[in-house]
Write a structure and sequence with these properties.
This protein is 50% helix and 8% strand. It is of the alpha/beta class. Bound molecules: adenosine-5'-triphosphate and magnesium ion. Magnesium ion binds next to helix 3.
């Protein structure tokens, strides 16, 4: 069997918590066997890191690892992307094309966000998993491929099966080897290691002097619940390294940044409790209170924006004003839908005629993504659209990098 310490080091998996050690153990047991693996866990927990580790530790490591984000491919072309197509089989198919399964032959295919695959495609996935057989779109002949499958999702596939959105046979086939990656808040003991590694990597590549964190600053980081998991922590560390260049990081600095981060999401609400003490328990209560408060407010805000999206004109560069005016509505003591009841005119008169629904949509998606820490599932749910539509819109409005960059 593979040496687990070496595996962990080589694949760059940080963490000494029991749960991470258990995952590394499991990887070492299954990597060399050609069995499919399902990786589950919230956004940002490291599913892709784990998928790469499985491939790297397998006998296929010298062959390609082909990563496919199933949620990002429009439904109409997913089969041609996965299995290839014959020239002329549909408008735009002006060449024969290999699919990802063919490209991954003798290697590994990583189907990220597998919960997003349409049910018809799932039948074909099951077939290729069981027999290696697939058919290019527009062809009649069966082809064969030799691929190891790793799938990942942040959805509850069991729920999807119950709702008839995911095939039970495929689910059973996939979940034989299940790697469930716990959220960061359930392995807080690893925070110190993550912080150290991310700080070192960042300061080294940006020529910044690194003087470390005081222990109480790390303790403070453990008070926060990191909804965006390791990705959020990494961004946080990088930001603090830039802002406090060359300094030893204290708990005041961390507290300030945590507050800053929370305030950005909320757009400075004076009615919130403010964390003023360094006393750990008090800080924790403050943070929790603030988060609960923000969550409630933003839910109300998003609800209002959505309820108003059928108004003739709304949004654009004035969206901030609209949302701010809505925010003050939400913040006022009267929390009813007053905006609708007495007065529909919450867009500035001078903005009428300049704003398009597209502008509004772009702004709403961008801000909601930021609010949910780029978690697309939550964003799509809160905006009342499918994840697939959200992916398409992110692409259309080129929001990808922006939303990630703007987390803080
Ligand atoms: N155990 C780990 N060791 C080192 N880095 C990690 C670990 N887990 C996550 N990361 C880092 O955190 C970030 C997010 O990880 P990754 O993209 O694998 O998450 P994910 O679960 O696939 O997220 P999503 O569901 O949003 O796609 C990456 O920068 C990754 O390198
Ligand atoms: Mg991922």
């Amino acid at each position: 069997m593979i040496n687990t310490d070496r595996l962990q080091k080589q694949s760059g998996i940080i963490g000494n918590s029991k749960s991470i050690k258990k995952i590394v153990d499991l990887i070492s047991q299954v990597a060399e066997v050609d069995i499919s693996v399902l990786i589950t866990g919230e956004s940002g927990v490291g599913k892709e890191v784990i998928a790469k580790a499985v491939h790297k530790a397998s006998n296929r490591s010298r062959k390609p690892l082909v990563t496919v984000n199933c949620g990002a491919i429009p439904e109409g072309i997913i089969e041609s992307e996965l299995f290839g197509h014959k020239k002329g089989s549909f408008t735009g198919a002006d060449q024969n094309r290999k699919g990802y399964f063919e490209e991954a032959d003798k290697g590994t295919i990583f189907l990220d966000e597998i919960g997003e695959t349409p049910i018809d495609t799932q039948v074909k996935l099951l077939r290729v998993l069981e027999s290696g057989e697939y058919i290019r779109v527009g062809e009649a002949t069966t082809r064969k491929t030799n691929v190891r499958l790793i799938a990942a999702t942040n959805k509850n596939l069991e729920e999807l099966v119950k709702k008839g959105l995911f095939r039970e046979d495929l689910y059973f086939r996939l979940k034989t080897i299940l790697l469930n990656i716990p959220p960061l808040r359930e392995r807080l003991e690893d925070i110190g290691k993550f912080v150290e590694r991310f700080s070192l990597e960042f300061t080294r590549s940006n020529n910044i002097i690194y003087k470390g964190f005081v222990p109480s600053a790390i303790r403070l980081l453990k008070q926060y619940d990191w909804p965006g998991n390791i990705r959020e922590l990494k961004h946080f560390v990088e930001k603090i390294m830039v802002l406090q260049k060359g300094q030893r990081i204290t708990d005041e600095m961390v507290m300030h940044e945590l507050n800053q981060r929370i305030n950005t999401t909320l757009s400075q609400n004076k009615s919130l409790p403010v964390a003023i003490s360094n006393n750990a328990e008090k800080v924790e209560i403050d943070l929790i209170l603030r988060q609960l408060f923000m969550l409630k407010q933003d839910t109300e805000l998003i609800q209002k924006i959505l309820m108003n999206s059928n108004l003739p004109k709304l949004g654009g560069e004035n969206f901030f004003e609209v949302s701010n005016s809505l925010k003050s509505e939400v913040n006022s003591s009267n929390r009813s839908l007053k905006v609708f009841e007495d007065d529909n005119r919450f867009i500035r008169d001078e903005a009428i005629g300049e704003i398009s629904i597209k502008d509004l949509e772009k702004e709403a998606i961008s801000r909601t993504l930021r609010f949910f820490n780029t978690n697309r599932r939550k964003t799509a749910k809160s905006l009342g659209m499918s994840e697939r539509t959200l992916y398409r819109k992110i692409d259309e409005y080129q929001l990808e990098n922006k939303s990630k960059k703007d987390i803080f």
